[in-house]
Amino acid sequence: MAVKRGYNDCISTIKPVRDFLDVMSGKWKFPIIVSIGVGNDRFVDIQESIPGITPKVLAKELKDLEQHQLIKRTVVGDYPVKITYTHEPYAATLTPIIYAMKDWGINHRKKMFSDAANENRNTK
Fold first, then answer.
1. Got the DSSP string for the chain?
2. Domain 2-123 has CATH 1.10.10.10
3. pLDDT tens column, 45-81
4. Which of 68, 73, 108, 123 is the most exposed place for a label (fewest CB within 10 A)?
């Protein structure tokens, strides 16, 4: 009976986590969400704020985020056309996740550099 309960508990966690990862997978979606969140609303501004992202990848990721209702693409004016990107209210649900990942990353970096420094001292 315990095996079945453990299986169900595992599945009930894995399925929603998998849904999350399907939407937010890759190395670019969170940086794009953060970039738009701090005020970069034009394509070029978003691209310049994220080192290493190509225009092709940025365009694809923006479309994916728009499809998942996390950002909104707005076309302003007739000529020249101005396109802006803003967060949908739903994107605010990612804020605690972003801060948790930031905190984890800071702590992990400290641990890795601290462990590496300790290891170097022990080998000398």
1. -HHHHHHHHHHHHHHHHHHHHHHH-SSSHHHHHHHHHTT--SHHHHHHHSTT--HHHHHHHHHHHHHTTSEEEEEE-SSS-EEEEEE-GGGGGGHHHHHHHHHHHHHHHHHHHHHHHHHHHHH-
2. yes
3. 999 999 999 999 999 999 999 999 999 999 988 788 8
4. 123
